[in-house]
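Treating backbone geometry as a discrete language has practical consequences that deserve illustration. No coordinates are needed to read the tokens, only the vocabulary itself. For completeness, the protein is quoted in full, as a sequence line and a line of structure tokens:
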Amino acid sequence: MAMRAPSALIVLLLVGAFSSVIPYTRPPPRDTLFIGRADYESPTTPEQVHVSVVGQNQMRISWVTDDPASATVDYGTSSGTYTSSAMANTTSYSYESYQSGQIYDAVIGPLQPSTVYYYRCSGDSSLEFNFTTPPAQFPVNLVIIGDLGQTGWTQTTLQHIAASNYDMLLLPGDLSYADYDEPRWDSYGRLVEPLASQRPWMMTAGNHDVEKKVPPAPFTAYNARWRMPFEQSGSDSNLFYSFNVAGVHVIMLCSYTAFDEDSDQYAWLQNDLQSVDRAATPWVFVLLHAPWYNSNYAHQGEEASVGMKQAMEGLVYQYSVDVVFAGHVHAYERFTRVYNGEADNCGPVYITIGDGGNREGLATDYMDPQPEISLFREASFGHGELDIFNGTTAFWTWHRNDDDESVVADSVWLTTLASNPNCSSS
């Protein structure tokens, strides 16, 4: 992966350091999308294909068919030549009058890092996909985006992400905005398949991922369609888990399941943070949906934010988490390093990035004056990229996407807290 030219980085850094808001005239809203299944496809043709990492050298391939098909994945490092295969697990679910298709997931590997693999899912031997495995060591590029949805803005966001040289996408909740309109989960899977089938997409759930009418259970569709590697991190829930990628430890938390000090999620987080080896993974990131710090009037005072912050902020600070990413608020905001409401050089950087392209629009009403701990905020759609060059240095850029051009509007250099002797990591 090529590094950006130093001169360009300096210019971007200055933009992020000295501007709190870059003036921008937002264009009008765009239509909500629905991507249907193509009429010419057979009921056993794989669709909604996406990949996610499992451990250090495995990948999970997930897909859906209308009718049951042979549940296997064939794969190899040459197009059309498949030297290995794996059996898939199969599930389905019903919701009122809706019946899902057959939902498959197969874990393949061991795989080599930074390698292109070609694969085909059962049901259509002529339909080939490919993905690239993440690197085993630095540098690594992560795309981070929340509240993606299915609108014209979403399409622009996806186009800009596709043009970037990224290794993995992280999504802190609110995927499809189905809101218990179950066919919209299928539409979302088709919309993101061109990207999600080529790079691992790792995520946690948001409030719009909840089935609000029960039965079934609150996260039935999400858990069936977007299975994450929770078992490997000692979690008993698909809603919170962790994994490593190229010297980075990523923790996914859920704002909408129990998080108090007596909860399973709290106990798991404490154990997970205690087990992090900062020599092997000097960077630690947390992703969750409802932001703990937010100077937008949207979503102020919610228990998912206030209660979770009260319960877990101490743990995150004690173990020197580098950045906490959130969604929920449909805008972008970057805070300085913070703990207990005040600037603290040993606290995480807090970034809200709930601006992927949702159908509800932007959260345009910010508090005035801007809090001192809030360094940059803007109500525009966009996506973030984190270039992690080594065990100490990374570069964050926020790309404003809703003008149909990927324009860097905010940026900052980051140094891991593991390299700061004044900050605790245990």
